[in-house]
Amino acid sequence: MDKLRIRGGRPLQGEVTISGAKNAALPQLCAALLTEQALTLRNVPRLRDVATMRALLERIGVRVQTHGERGGLTLQAVEPLDPVAPYELVKTMRASILVLGPLLARCGRARVSLPGGCAIGARPVDQHIRGLQAMGAQITMEHGYIEARLPPGRSRLRGARITTDMVTVTGTENLLMAATLAEGETVLENAAQEPEVVDLAELLIAMGARIEGHGTRRIHVQGVAALRGAEHHVVADRIEAGTFLCAVAAAGGRAHLRHGRADHLDAVIDKLLAAGVEVEADADGLTVASPGGAALQAQSFRTTEYPGFPTDMQAQFMALNCVAQGPSAVTETIFENRFMHVQELARLGARIRIDGRTAFVEGGQRLSGAAVMATDLRASASLVIAGLVADGETVIDRIYHLDRGYDQMEVKLRALGADIERLA
Ligand SMILES: CC(=O)N[C@H]1[C@@H](OP(=O)(O)OP(=O)(O)OC[C@H]2O[C@@H](n3ccc(=O)[nH]c3=O)[C@H](O)[C@@H]2O)O[C@H](CO)[C@@H](O)[C@@H]1O
Ligand SMILES: C=C(OP(=O)(O)O)C(=O)O
């Protein structure tokens, strides 16, 4: 099993290119199911989740071709399609639920295993199901599978006003995709405003969908009878960029993050500026400069939906808070079990106490390298950041979690001067 070995203590210097966003690319790959014409995506990141999604789509019957150009994929969902997402393919990836809406809209039926993914909470999909039911789908749960179909005599979903109980990112995306081919108007209330939702809406509009209000809490969709092929460039990964911002902040140094989008990272950048980090946007990305974690001031924060502080950056910023000066309180409001990195950070010398949904970080700790275990994707990234500042050697086991969502993280960090290598 792959591990990462890091020898900490080196500042980071130079330039890295931020890849396309995992959480934008995955729904966009599923959008290929909505048309029989070819969909070309550029800037698709090289990730394990993308490979898993490709395998799932191929299993359903989508033809997928890789372009010579980096990150180019063309997908074509020509009939016959087999609208089944089997357990073996969806168990490792939350985003596999995103085939449900498109399959139902296109094929009138779908059989999708309940998804897996990071074990950061119970993560039910009741809002996806309720929304599709409001659009006329008949849905039952059998043997761990969601069995969805249109009622006899109907060939399309019908538009509906849907208010989700909470803001859900993939829920919004699933219902948005389903609504593009429904009869009549769908209104999604309490919709997610994340940049990945906006990027998906822009792709769907290029495919001929009639969508308004994406990026706000209310999205209007006028269903159309068919969508066409399109070409689209996947938006840069704000979480990858945020992770590198925290890595440079903690390790010290100066780096340019090519293609990084400051406008998608306001909440994180505000906290970094308050901590004493310099962050500047330019035409082609972001520059970050830091005197190193020990010279920074720890920051309290609370995760919320976009444009608030992203839950997917909580673990990485917490690693920074461990070495920065002063106490901080980190409150996780999105997922009920997203502090699994705390125990592993403690092995490196961090002092953190959890009380309910808040982690109280003591700050000002000198971390020392140790063997640790990655428990989920962003927990892995937080351990990498901690390893970069720790004295001596840190070995992170179960690094496959990191590969789900980061495109060659160790290669990029090495380019910045980090002493990091993958052990087979
Ligand atoms: C592939 C992808 O894009 N993953 C992102 C997506 O996950 P994902 O879309 O799964 O997260 P949601 O926004 O749906 O989850 C938000 C909260 O709502 C709850 N919930 C959600 C749906 C539902 O039907 N019922 C329900 O109770 C969840 O358990 C969670 O507590 O948004 C999360 C929140 O920004 C990010 O951490 C993930 O990286
Ligand atoms: C939680 C995440 O991913 P997923 O929703 O795919 O499990 C993440 O990207 O941090």
From TrEMBL:
Reply yes or no: does the keyword Cell cycle apply: yes
Molecular-function annotations in GO: UDP-N-acetylglucosamine 1-carboxyvinyltransferase activity
Explain the purpose of this protein: Cell wall formation. Adds enolpyruvyl to UDP-N-acetylglucosamine.
- InterPro entries listed in its UniProt record: Enolpyruvate_Tfrase_dom, Enolpyruvate_Tfrase_sf, MurA_subfamily, RNA3'P_cycl/enolpyr_Trfase_a/b, UDP_GlcNAc_COvinyl_MurA
What the entry lists under PANTHER family is as follows:
UDP-N-ACETYLGLUCOSAMINE 1-CARBOXYVINYLTRANSFERASE (PTHR43783:SF1)
Kindly report the protein's main subcellular placement as a broad class.
cytoplasm
| Protein's organism | Tepidimonas alkaliphilus
Task: Identify the domain of life.
Answer: Bacteria
User: Could you provide one GO biological process annotation from this protein's UniProt record?
Assistant: UDP-N-acetylgalactosamine biosynthetic process
Pathway field: Cell wall biogenesis; peptidoglycan biosynthesis
Name of the molecule in the record: UDP-N-acetylglucosamine 1-carboxyvinyltransferase
Please report which protein family the annotation says this sequence is part of: Belongs to the EPSP synthase family. MurA subfamily.
Report the EC code(s) recorded for this entry: 2.5.1.7
Recorded GO cellular component terms are: cytoplasm
The protein's matches in CDD domains, at most eight in alphabetical order, are given as: UdpNAET
- Sequence positions bearing 2-(S-cysteinyl)pyruvic acid O-phosphothioketal: 118
